[in-house]
Amino acid sequence: MSWHVAAVLEEAARYLGVRELGTNRGREVDYWNYEAIRDWRQFPMGGKGAPWCAAFVSACGVQGIGRKLWPVPHTAIADLIAQWGEEHDVAYREPEPGDIFCLHYPAKGRYGHVGFVVGVPSGSFETIEGNTNPGGSREGYGVFKRVRTVTDRCLFVRWAAVI
């Protein structure tokens, strides 16, 4: 594993156990959204109280390896991360540690949840993800480790391949 990947995963792990205060709010959550958005007016609900899984990914990347090295868009929108992976030919159907996983929601017609892959046991992947809960919701309340099954809804963005 490259130092880039290790640094980003270490940063994500540092936040395990962080919980929201209210709905999609809290010191860390507001910070992650602000870091990803920078201008609250450009995001639904003004950014405050917005879903934050992608903002968590963006903030961990920037904090882990620095704004100049982090190649993924600074965004709070999961679908933009998946699009970026496809546009840069770093989107895969099989996970590797360090990838950003993207989950597609057919009813929404887009990718609607993201997080980091930290391990790859057979047929599944271990994650650290924000705005989830122990049941795996995309509208959760904290940063958790989870185990998910690899399905056709999953896309894995190998961001470190472009550094």
Quick structural overview:
This protein has 163 residues and is of the alpha+beta class. It has helices spanning 3-13, 27-37, 53-65, 78-87; strands spanning 91-92, 100-105, 110-119, 124-132, 142-149, 154-157.
Enter the CATH topology name: endopeptidase fold (from Nostoc punctiforme)
Structural class: alpha+beta
Average pLDDT metric: 92
- The radius of gyration is 14 Å
Named at the architecture level, the CATH assignment is Alpha-Beta Complex
Based on Cα principal axes, name the global outline.
globular
Number of domains: 1
CATH homologous superfamily grouping: endopeptidase domain like (from Nostoc punctiforme)
CATH class: Alpha Beta
| Helix-strand topology string | HHHHEEEEEE
- As a percent range, the share of helical residues equals 25-40%
List how many beta strands DSSP finds: 6
- Give the count of helical stretches: 4
Which regions contain 5 or more consecutive residues with pLDDT less than 50?
A: none
Placed side by side, the strands forming the largest sheet appear as 1-6-2-3-4-5
Describe the largest sheet.
6 strands, antiparallel
Our measurement of the CA-to-CA distance between the termini, rounded to an integer number of angstroms, reads: 13 Å
Task: Give a structural overview.
Helix 1 packs across helix 3 and helix 2 packs across helix 3. The chain has a single domain (3-162), classed as endopeptidase fold (from Nostoc punctiforme), CATH 3.90.1720. Strand 2 and strand 3 (110-119) form a beta hairpin. It contains four helices and six strands; from the N terminus they run ααααββββββ. The chain is globular. It starts with a helix and ends in a 6-residue tail after the last strand. Helices cover 28% and strands 24% of the residues. The protein has helices spanning 3-13, 27-37, 53-65, 78-87, and strands spanning 91-92, 100-105, 110-119, 124-132, 142-149, 154-157.
